[in-house]
Amino acid sequence: MLDANADVKVFSVHSDQRQAMSVTRHVAGELAVLSARLDAPAPAELEVVYLPPVRAMSPGQSTGRPQGGLEGEGRPGGGRGGFGGERGSRGGREGMGASSGRSEFYAKYAALSKGESLKSKPNEAMKVDFFPKWDGESLSLIVLDDGNPADQCRVTVSGPGEWSETGETELGIVSIPVKHPGRYMVEVRISVASTDAAQPSGGPVSRIGTLTLDLK
User: Fold this and answer.
1) Can you tell me the distance from the alpha carbon of 28 to that of 186, in angstroms, rounded to the nearest whole number?
2) So what's the pLDDT on residue 37?
3) Cβ contact 130:145 at 8 Å
4) How distant is the alpha carbon of residue 179 from its chain centre?
5) What pLDDT shows up at residue 62?
6) Number of helices and strands (H, E) in the chain?
7) Per-residue pLDDT tens for 61-72?
8) What is the pLDDT of residue 200?
9) From CA 97, how far away is CA 94, in angstroms rounded?
10) Within the chain, which residues score under 70 in pLDDT?
11) CA distances from 162 to 79, 108, 165 (A)
């Protein structure tokens, strides 16, 4: 679900040159759809930042927000949508409340050939960011949390045929055996203390990051 008042940014990346894209919102009741114009040629990377508006809450009050993410299930190789979205309780650090705090969503798309790695510079707007490399045997990932290596975070990689594998970052780095081309989804969740003045209860902020990766 997309909040009509959420802060949503979309970036296209060409050869380390990042460009903010114009986003159009279509809201009908509780359904919200975003569209962004892609100018040819298609970018090698796309980044989406979705920050729900902060609302003041009294102590003990639930956010009442559904725990959904960007439109689509985000399941690689099928289902609705391409990237983004929240899929159950996989990944991330423990201790997140289901009905307190708030969630921020960061989605990224990239296409890689064997032996390639992403060389784009980190985007300050992407609090959760991924930098993958694929050598044909394993997928190595650098995971950043607010620009720093995300240590001891569970990372789940899902692929075609309901395949999935989970690993844990060490100093921000994790390696998952991936030997076949195809579309893969990388997910991580990181819980941090809230610094929002409008949320005096100090509920956790759940940063949910997804990377849709086309390996060629």
Assistant:
1) 30
2) 79
3) no
4) 23
5) 43
6) 0, 14
7) 443 433 333 333
8) 52
9) 9
10) 1-4, 40, 55-100, 196-202
11) 12, 21, 10
- Determine phi and psi for 56, rounding to 5 degrees: -65, 140
As a whole number of angstroms, the distance between CA 52 and CA 70 comes to 11
For residues 109-118, one letter each, b for 16 or more C-beta atoms within 10 angstroms of the residue's C-beta and e for the rest, the string is bbbbeeebeb
Q: What is the pLDDT of residue 40?
A: 63
Whole-angstrom distance, CA of residue 143 vs CA of residue 42: 25
Q: Say if residues 205 and 101 touch (Cβ distance below 8 Å).
A: yes
What pLDDT, on a 0 to 100 scale, did the predictor assign at position 23?
86
The confidence score (pLDDT) of residue 75 equals 35
Q: Are 131 and 173 in contact (CB under 8 A)?
A: no
Taking Cα atoms as reference points, which of 120, 104, 125 lies closest to residue 52?
104
Residue partners of 198: CB distance under 8 A and separation at least 6 = 54, 55, 56
